[in-house]
Amino acid sequence: MKKESKIQSAEVRAGYAQHVVASYKRSATAPVLVKGNGARVWDAEGREYLDFGSGIAVNCLGHAHPRLAEVMKKQGEELVHVSNLFFHPKQAELARELVKRTGPGKMFFCNSGAEANESMVKAARKAGSGEGRVEVITALNSFHGRTMGMIAASGQERLREGFGPVMPGFVYVPFNDLAAADQAIGPKTAAVMVEGIQGEGGVIPATAEYLLGLRKMTQERGVSLLMDSVQCGHYRTGRFQSYELILEKAGKKDEFLPDAVSMAKSLGGGFPVGAVWFGKKLQDVLVPGSHATTYGGTALACAVALEILKIIEEEKLAENIFVRGEELKKGLAKLAGRGWVGEVRG
């Protein structure tokens, strides 16, 4: 049996330099990671690291979780992918679980957060097109993805530099500013899209007053409310959607339900999964021929996402977030004001 040759970091880095588009800001000496287990990863030289990045808010159960490895193997031996012109049980089961955790409605499956946000915007525009409602209001410093549509939607000018002409129809207002949102909504407004917690904008939570105010004014004026939960959802705050905890702390949990919610990142725990929950207003807007994706909701992706939900529930990980979160917050608070640590929120 031929012995597997040892991976050489220098060769891997050289391979990247020669064959991989340099669109990521990697350090020239960034570690070449070859193995992971739980919260730790190892490089080609055997050095061990504690992974604080979690694959940019993705690896909610850490690396190489045995149950995820097993479900990938099992499902891979049964059915990986079929066209969405057919049915398969895993997609129906995952849709049911996500609807149960979010609210009455229906699911659309895709592969990433940007795709999920694109789907929300398409549905909102299609719903409003008959009345000339095509504009979408988003928040300054927001981030919704890097497709042409989502760099236009994101409230950061730097994302659009060099990619003009930019897709029109987006209006930007300050985050957590109800008066600004109220002034921006007009007869051409199709939707307001915000993050429950701004990620790239500085990890800034929406206030309960802001979310409730947005819900009230959008309902009164026939505008859809879209929540981007790609980075801040799926139990990261101890509740399935980040806005749930925000409203719960204000005693208003049952008074808020948006018209659509995008999901991705930790929904698949490292496996590419994207989804959109559509409430009753938008759930039947996307009809055959209006929107689709080849790989959305594959049997393998849905099986992985289902297993993640089961593990979180069975091991009571959502409840544990509050305990570990307070512990981490107290420790990090000691670093506030030192070096590059400005403020600790949570």
From TrEMBL:
One of its GO terms (molecular function) is pyridoxal phosphate binding. Its cofactor is pyridoxal 5'-phosphate. Belongs to the class-III pyridoxal-phosphate-dependent aminotransferase family. It comes from Verrucomicrobia subdivision 6 bacterium BACL9 MAG-120924-bin69. This is Acetylornithine aminotransferase. PANTHER family: ACETYLORNITHINE AMINOTRANSFERASE, MITOCHONDRIAL, AMINOTRANSFERASE CLASS III. InterPro entries: Aminotrans_3, Class-III_PLP-dep_AT, PyrdxlP-dep_Trfase, PyrdxlP-dep_Trfase_major, PyrdxlP-dep_Trfase_small. Keywords: Aminotransferase, Pyridoxal phosphate, Transferase.
